[in-house]
Design brief:
Strand content: over 45%
Mean pLDDT: 94
Largest sheet: 7 strands, mixed
Number of helices: 0
Distance between the termini: 40 Å
Amino acid sequence: QVQLVESGGGSVQAGGSLKLSCAVSRNTYRSNCLGWFRQAPGKEREGVAAIYLGGTMTYYADSVKGRFTISRDNDKNTLYLQMDSLKPEDTAMYYCAAGRVRGYVLNYALYNHWGQGTQVTVSS
């Protein structure tokens, strides 16, 4: 079983920064992709950023391009999401996920291992 544990959420003012971390168990069990997703109250979960385990290509939602950066440290088995120039509309619960993904990498339905989430709140 793949285990993912997020940390780093919090409350910031608009324009501020946060860095989320996700500790990923060594056993990624057939997963080939790691991603960050978010869900605001009353809204559907949406993909934020993703990265393939076997490469360096990264993928971002249009709403976060140029502001968020996904990265991973293979030695530490950790996935990161650096979030800069935060906006109130970025407020959500953020989740990291792993999956054997074929297709659109920001489609949350393609991921089958999830963390418990970390809350990000951005005030104006």
